[in-house]
Write a structure and sequence with these properties.
Layout (H helix, E strand, L loop, with lengths): L16 H16 L11 E3 L6 E3 L1 E4 L2 E4 L3 H9 L6
Length: about 80
Amino acid sequence: VPTRHLLVVHVLAGAGVVPTITVMDRFVRAEHDKGPGSVSPHLYHRSADVNSSHQVTEHGDGTTRVIVTGTLATAFDALGLIEE
């Protein structure tokens, strides 16, 4: 939700989600910086039960860190994207 007029959504459905997160992050940050109506420059994961969401990106020093914990970790694990 980079602005009050824009929602960016991607369904987690395989390994393609990993590079997609990078593209979505760049897009959301660019849209968020366009002026009035800004909401958040971060990506969030909304769980399958639709009752919770949590921030999954952190920005600092020109970098983005994706935080794979909680429901996002559960979803990544179900897709086989987390190595033990």
